[in-house]
């Protein structure tokens, strides 16, 4: 694995860990749309951006 | 809903799909990679739609909406964790693709058998996959039966629904192999995404728009917007359900085999990014359906009725309801036909091909085509019998397949891994998952997938360290992949630089 791959691998793991931790800690009492709902939708967008970056050099 | 409208919906879908399947043929395929991998020439857009259709079974629209109805927003988190896990394709996709092109692999288990230099590895993984995926297909078929019977109030029977789904799954996979599966999958995926998005917009509109919709949830059902919420999504449950799905893109061969198929890394990128865009819409739609049902139909005894209730509601025009219902049936079929094709390739390549020496490609293909309807009929029989064991195996399927993950990671990243390590970890942990599921035991509140993955990792590493690795093969394979990874990314960077220098 190159350095770039390792870096984005670590970033992805951190994002996934946060998707487990934050809703069960900081957001347990935020019963609004901007609580866990928004957080997980946000995580999905971050994941899409990470995938865009990792694969940006893939050519035919 | 009127039965004749539903019948018309099913007939139109069948005719359109068969037509598309027929068009997708591309001469007579005589090779395994031609029939099962589309000659490794699939384009990104169709691959993305088909990947989505294969992953998102009927479970998504019925089950995920039901899960949201029952436990609230945790269902979104569950699906987003799976979604994030697809990032594994960004790391493993090019490696699978490079290895497939170089060594001509047709199935992921064939790759593991070759890399660990032991055919028994391929046989064991192929058989364990069949043990879990045939029951999974059976439950999908049964799902179609229940859905059709439920929505027509018994007008179309359970058995009729199951027969329709079985026949179509066989036809779609038989006509042109992966090509007809991919093109009919794409039709289903497009139909589903458009119709279901319109339904969710209509319902939210009917419930007072975005602010009215969430306002009602916040005021009347605040538990549904947090975890653990009403208690359904305890952290242990969340972890147990998400762990097998986090690794789904690697562990389930009907999707991991897709990493062999794109025509180029660019197409692979198209598949991955297209799937992520599609998957996010799909996920949001299903979860919003579940929330809508919470507001509109509180007190349903069976959460799986949430979707049919919504489709029959006042906010959804009957024709749109029929389209979505047919799309849900199609979603089950698009999952089953892909699994059918993958299982046939596993049996022909890894079981038959390894048991009998010097079997030709055309012979393997003939065997693959022969077993496809047999597997479908087995799934049909299981669906009709509705045995408890089948339901257990189906639930255990994602957990049972997760036990192959350490061996798959080791294929590319750990030269010290051995065939004995793989066989022990897959066999013992697979049995452990089955025993836990059968006994409904959850040590420390954690499900079979978590234990299966933990034990398989320990066994793979431990047994490998005690046995002799295939030094030569591992060195050659891993060095090739690493060199090519550097080369392909470097050459594309150089191409970029040249483009910039030329002032394009």
From TrEMBL, chain A:
From what organism does this protein derive? Mesobacillus maritimus
Q: Keywords of this protein's UniProt record, alphabetized?
A: Membrane, Transmembrane, Transmembrane helix
* The protein's name in its UniProt record: Uncharacterized protein
Taxonomic placement: Bacteria, Bacillati, Bacillota, Bacilli, Bacillales
Where does the chain cross the membrane? 7-27, 33-54
Q: Which domain of life is it from?
A: Bacteria
UniProtKB/TrEMBL annotation, chain B:
- Reading the lineage from the top rank, the first entry is Bacteria
Q: Which InterPro entries does this chain map to? A: Na/Glc_symporter_sf, Na/solute_symporter, Sodium:Solute_Symporter
Query: PANTHER family, alphabetically?
Result: SODIUM/PROLINE SYMPORTER-RELATED, SODIUM_PROLINE SYMPORTER
What does the UniProt entry say about where the protein is found? Cell membrane
Please spell out the taxonomic lineage of the organism that makes this protein: Bacteria, Bacillati, Bacillota, Bacilli, Bacillales
Q: Which organism is it from?
A: Mesobacillus maritimus
The name on file for this protein is: Sodium:solute symporter family protein
Keywords, A to Z? Cell membrane, Ion transport, Membrane, Sodium, Sodium transport, Symport, Transmembrane, Transmembrane helix, Transport
| Membrane-topology descriptor | Multi-pass membrane protein
Report TM segments: 6-24, 45-68, 80-99, 120-138, 158-178, 190-211, 231-250, 271-299, 319-344, 365-383, 389-414, 421-438, 444-466
Give the catalytic activity: L-proline(in) + Na(+)(in) = L-proline(out) + Na(+)(out)
Record carries keyword Zinc: no
What is stated as this protein's family in its record?
Belongs to the sodium:solute symporter (SSF) (TC 2.A.21) family.
């Amino acid at each position: 694995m190159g350095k770039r791959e390792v870096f984005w691998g670590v970033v992805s793991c951190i994002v996934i860990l946060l998707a487990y931790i934050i809703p069960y800690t900081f957001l347990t009492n935020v019963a609004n749309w901007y609580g866990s709902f928004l957080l997980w939708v946000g995580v999905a967008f971050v994941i899409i951006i990470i995938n865009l970056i990792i694969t940006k050099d893939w050519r035919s | 809903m009127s039965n004749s409208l539903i019948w018309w919906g099913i007939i139109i879908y069948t005719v359109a799909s068969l037509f598309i399947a027929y068009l997708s043929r591309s001469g007579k395929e005589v090779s395994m990679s031609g029939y099962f991998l589309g000659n490794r020439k699939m384009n990104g857009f169709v691959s993305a739609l088909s990947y989505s259709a294969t992953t998102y079974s009927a479970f998504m629209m019925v089950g995920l909406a039901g899960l949201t109805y029952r436990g609230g927003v945790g269902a979104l988190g569950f699906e987003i964790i799976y979604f994030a896990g697809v990032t594994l394709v960004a790391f493993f996709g090019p490696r699978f693709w490079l290895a497939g092109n170089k060594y001509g692999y047709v199935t992921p288990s064939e790759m593991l058998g070759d890399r660990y230099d032991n055919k028994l590895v391929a046989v064991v993984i192929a058989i364990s996959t069949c043990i879990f995926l045939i029951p999974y297909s059976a439950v999908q078929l049964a799902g179609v039966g229940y859905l059709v019977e439920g929505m027509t109030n018994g007008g179309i029977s359970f058995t009729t629904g199951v027969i329709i789904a079985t026949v179509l799954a066989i036809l779609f996979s038989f006509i042109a192999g992966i090509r007809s599966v991919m093109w009919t999958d794409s039709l289903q995926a497009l139909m589903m995404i458009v119709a279901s998005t319109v339904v969710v917009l209509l319902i939210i509109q009917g419930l007072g728009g975005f602010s009215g919709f969430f306002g009602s949830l916040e005021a009347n059902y605040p538990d549904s917007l947090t975890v653990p919420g009403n208690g359904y999504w305890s952290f242990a449950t969340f972890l147990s359900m998400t762990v097998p799905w986090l690794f789904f893109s690697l562990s389930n061969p009907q999707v991991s085999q897709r990493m062999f198929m794109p025509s180029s890394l660019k197409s692979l990128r198209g598949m991955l990014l297209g799937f992520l865009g599609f998957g996010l819409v799909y996920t949001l739609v299903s979860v919003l359906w579940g929330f809508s049902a919470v507001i509109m139909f509180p007190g349903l005894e069976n959460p799986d009725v949430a979707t049919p209730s919504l489709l029959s509601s006042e906010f959804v025009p009957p024709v749109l309801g029929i389209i979505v219902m047919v799309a849900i049936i199609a979603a089950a079929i698009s999952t089953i036909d892909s699994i059918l094709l993958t299982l046939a390739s596993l049996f022909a390549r890894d079981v038959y091909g390894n048991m009998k020496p010097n079997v030709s490609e055309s012979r393997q293909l003939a065997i693959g085509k022969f077993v496809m309807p047999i597997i479908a009929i087995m799934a049909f029989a299981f669906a009709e019998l509705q045995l408890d064991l089948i339901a257990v195996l189906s639930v255990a399927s994602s957990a049972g397949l997760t036990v192959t993950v350490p061996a798959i990671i080791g294929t590319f990243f750990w030269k010290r891994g051995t065939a004995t390590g793989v066989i022990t970890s897959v066999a013992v942990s697979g049995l452990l998952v089955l025993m836990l599921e059968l006994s409904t035991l959850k040590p420390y509140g954690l499900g079979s997938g978590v234990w299966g993955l933990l034990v398989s990792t320990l066994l793979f590493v431990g047994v490998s360290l005690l046995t002799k690795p295939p030094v030569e093969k591992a060195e050659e394979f891993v060095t090739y992949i690493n060199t090519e990874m550097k080369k392909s990314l470097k050459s594309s960077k150089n191409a970029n630089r040249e483009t910039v220098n030329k002032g394009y």
